[in-house]
Amino acid sequence: MITRKLATISKFIIHKVGNKHNDTKNAFSDKEVHFDEESYDLMLPFLLRPFGTVVQSYRFNHHANVELNEINSYAKSIFTDDDAFVETSKNIVKHLFEQSDSAQIKTGDVLVALFEGIEYKEMVTNAIGIFKIESKTNFFQTYLEDNSYDVLVQQGISSKKVDKGCLILNQTDMEGNIILSVDNNSYDAQYWLDKFLNIKYADDMNNHTHNYLDMCSEFSTEILKTSFGEQERNIFLAKTIDYFKENETINVENFKEEVFKDENHIQLFEDFKKEYEEEQKVLLRNQFDLAEAVVKKDKKKIKTEIKLDTNIQIKLDIDAPDAAEEFLERGYDEEKKMYYYKVFFNAEG
User: Fold this and answer.
1) Average pLDDT in the 286-315 region?
2) To pair with 15 at 20 to 30 A between CA atoms, which of 119, 274, 282, 338?
3) Entry pTM
4) Are 99 and 196 in contact (CB under 8 A)?
């Protein structure tokens, strides 16, 4: 997460990127944009607002040597040479164009910016922003002609959100430059993250927390729901979130002892964990510090409804780990030949 209260745009340029599969070409600007006050005041928060809620960060990646990563090289050029901004921004667009290996990848405007005064974890630094605008919005433009007003439809960039964007901070740790990324059109996430930026998640508490929660979520759906039903799935998820809320350090052995009552479930969990690590090519730590912000964000993605084929839904509270176990009973009615849920309560809310 960044803070933008001190942030300014010191350099800014717009290019257009094509797609080699449909014969659309790149179009380049030769000069930087010089904003008027109104457009500057709208552009600055438009570009930086999405990064105010990003909790996970990335680092540059390369199969041979990270110094050979193209965007890493271009970023260093901009950070070290003020005069290199325009030409380097063109190279960034050319590199983006080369990654358009599918006709489904959209053309669009590419905005490249150099920011000053970005605050990240109590550090103030400059940063390079690369943004791709793929979607245009229709809007009405009124105009006066022959003493009467008329209207026409024009297309423009919506000021609500960027389609794709990354922020490369001029700040490094043991893994390299700190990078934040957003993607609101994630149908082609591999194109943006893996091919264009070639970045990987940082090996930190944010990533460890996210990976473990993601694995637990997958286990709840693929194993518990399939074999034992939605109630077991939701009980497990609620207990998982409760454990993560109550502990600053996650110990996997302790987690299993608190969350599972059945030894068979523990074995299923351990087997699934190994499969997950192999398929996702990640290493899940046996102990790691908790990232509270990641828990809050990932918790919102967890669905806790029990959807029945009789057009009835039961919504469970993810923050009440004992409720589904104590006040929800699952059974089978021999007369109707149907499953049922019995819900206990004192009063209707």
Assistant:
1) 91
2) 119
3) 0.83
4) yes
